Amino acid sequence: MQHVAIFFMLILVAFSGCSQSTTPQPSPQKNELSLIETETENNSDVEKISDTEDEIDDDNDGFEEEFSTEKTETHSDPLSGYNRSMTNFNDKVYTYALNPVAEAYAYVIPQPFRIGLSNFIKNLNFPVRLVNNLLQGKMQNVSDETGRFLANSTIGLLGVMDPATSYLHIPAHVEDFGQTLGYYGVGTGFHIVLPFLGPSNLRDLAGISVDAYASPLINIRGLERYKIPKNWVESMGIVAIHMINKTSLNLGQYESIKKDALDLYPFLRDIYEQKRVSDIAE
Questions:
Q1: Three-state SS for 262?
Q2: What is the pTM assigned to this prediction?
Q3: Which residues contact 229 (CB under 8 A, 6 or more apart)?
Q4: What's the pLDDT tens digit per position in 224-246?
């Protein structure tokens, strides 16, 4: 049950006439010369046209070669049947459960309080960002994240406010273990859609499991003393509140993305995979 809880709760996780005239008849000799000159000119024109066509062909060959040799990463999708079904399930959960609850929640809880809660949760997950920036050798990021944590935990009232961004202008560097694996060249593996959490892949699923040990918000058997929740039920509660709060701050975003999809599953899959490539490249 412990592993199932970890699997379900981790979230602390793309377009532009010619006119006629009468003239004296030229002599036959002139006619011959005229024909020779005309033929010579025509041959010259043909050569020019031929040269131009060769240049165009060369350009087209270069164009085709450029695009035919362009490397495009494809993702294995042996679970496409399951993934489609789970995407439809998640879509219904969001449409008929999460979104209505988040709307009601936003109606009751003022936005400043919801932003404060979001900041608080982000601040608590500092260990995850710290460890992964260290593992990637990004020491400036480590310094920035440490400074942000100290500032937000003190003058930011335990992270409820974000003076590190507002006043100190210290950038955030969100890194997780899935990004760390990608940073060192580990492939994505096959795509998988997680219940409630949405698109993921084999590499990021492994990353979620490792990040759970660093996150103070996820209960791990044997590490209870270092965690805020003391059991998996409390962990599930924290994740649920975080999901509702996060959705309340982004109402309409999912619908905006979904309306552009001709086929929802591959659309969301490609958006996710492209975003992860961008995250790792940063």
A1: coil
A2: 0.73
A3: 217, 218, 219, 235, 237, 238
A4: 889 999 999 999 999 999 999 99
Domain count, the chain: 1
Tell whether 251 is covered by a domain: yes
Q: How far apart are CA 259 and CA 52, in angstroms?
A: 47
DSSP for residue 97: I
203-223: average pLDDT: 94
In this structure, what are the phi and psi dihedrals at residue 221, rounded to the nearest 5 degrees? -60, 125
pLDDT confidence of residue 278: 96
pLDDT confidence of residue 172: 97
What is the residue-wise DSSP string for 185-231? T----SEEEETTTEEEEHHHHHHHHHHHHH-TTS--TT-GGGSSSSS
Whether 171 and 55 have beta carbons less than 8 Å apart is answered as no
Task: Report CA 121 to chain centroid distance, whole Å.
Answer: 22
Tell whether 27 is covered by a domain: no
Cα→Cα distances 9→121, 151, 240, Å = 14, 29, 8
Identify the pLDDT of residue 28. 40
Mean pLDDT of the chain: 82
In a domain, 49, yes or no: no
Within a domain: 19: no
Q: Which domain holds residue 122?
A: 78-281
CB atoms within 10 A of CB 264: 15
**pLDDT for residue 191:** 97
Instruction: Spell out a b/e string for 217-251, using b for 16 or more CB atoms within 10 Å of the CB, else e.
Output: bbbbeeeeeebebeebeebeebbeebbbbbbbeee
Give the ranges where the chain is alpha helix by DSSP (H).
2-9, 28-68, 80-93, 99-108, 111-124, 126-135, 139-154, 163-166, 177-183, 202-214, 232-248, 253-258, 264-281
pLDDT at residue 8 tops 70 = no
